[in-house]
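Researcher: Let's do a round of design. I'm pasting the structure tokens now; please hold your answer until I've finished.
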């Protein structure tokens, strides 16, 4: 569907990772955010440390595909994203002119096909020729005093941002419509009447409640819960014996 992306369209590619623990931690992060496809280019051995760090994501490691070159790993992918902490804003060839993570996560849903996200070596990152074959370069904003992130941390941040922003991962709330909103405000107004809320404060308090609900963008389930509470409260007040 237009404007929606399937999570299986993403391929996480680790280029020559040197530490098995990092690979395991990446697998765990992938499991956290429902990413399944891991490609490894000339990786170190996937040893016990790797599986220990992966925790319950061992299946991702078992299904990971290994390649001898970056070119082999990406040949069947349609759109490639390089990641790097190093940018050259004045680079005339625009090799390392990056897009920032926030902007990337919002716009990537419009890209069709299989998307590969390349993460480089722990010590040298991605080489220029590897970045050159990619469609864009992605950078995670970090402090100028220490730009580079641990490999697994970088992957976790990217996957998290994709997970919360992309339409295919968001478990969207069924927000209430105009009829429900009017009914909710009516119940609140009735509640104020029943508790003899000061008339000179009532209008302003009703507006305050409307603004609170407007910011909250409550779901259908939350709406019905509130209506139940208001309804029971009003019923109890109205049925209370008068002294």
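Researcher: That's everything. Go ahead.
Model: Designed sequence:
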């Amino acid at each position: 569907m237009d404007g929606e992306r399937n999570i299986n369209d993403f391929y996480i590619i680790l280029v020559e990772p040197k530490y098995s623990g990092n690979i395991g931690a990446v697998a765990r992060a992938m499991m956290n955010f429902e990413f399944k496809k891991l490609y490894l280019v000339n990786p170190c051995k996937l040893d016990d440390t790797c599986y220990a760090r992966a925790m319950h994501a061992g299946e991702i490691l078992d299904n990971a595909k290994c390649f001898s070159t970056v070119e082999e790993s990406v040949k069947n992918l349609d759109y490639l994203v390089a990641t790097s902490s190093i940018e050259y804003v004045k680079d005339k060839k625009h090799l390392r002119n990056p897009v920032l993570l926030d902007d990337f996560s919002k716009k990537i849903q419009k890209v069709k096909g299989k998307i590969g996200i390349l993460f480089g070596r722990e010590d040298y990152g991605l080489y220029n020729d590897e970045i050159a074959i990619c469609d864009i370069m992605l950078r995670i904003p970090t402090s100028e005093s220490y730009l580079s992130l641990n490999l697994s941390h970088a992957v976790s941040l990217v996957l998290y941002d994709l997970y919360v922003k992309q339409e295919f991962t968001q478990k969207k709330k069924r927000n209430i419509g105009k009829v429900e909103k009017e009914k909710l405000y009516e119940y609140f107004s009735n509640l104020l009447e029943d508790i003899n809320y000061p008339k000179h404060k009532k209008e302003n308090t009703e507006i305050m409640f409307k603004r609170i609900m407007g910011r909250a963008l409550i779901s259908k389930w939350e709406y019905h819960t509130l209506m139940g509470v208001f309804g029971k409260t009003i019923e109890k007040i109205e049925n209370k014996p008068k002294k």
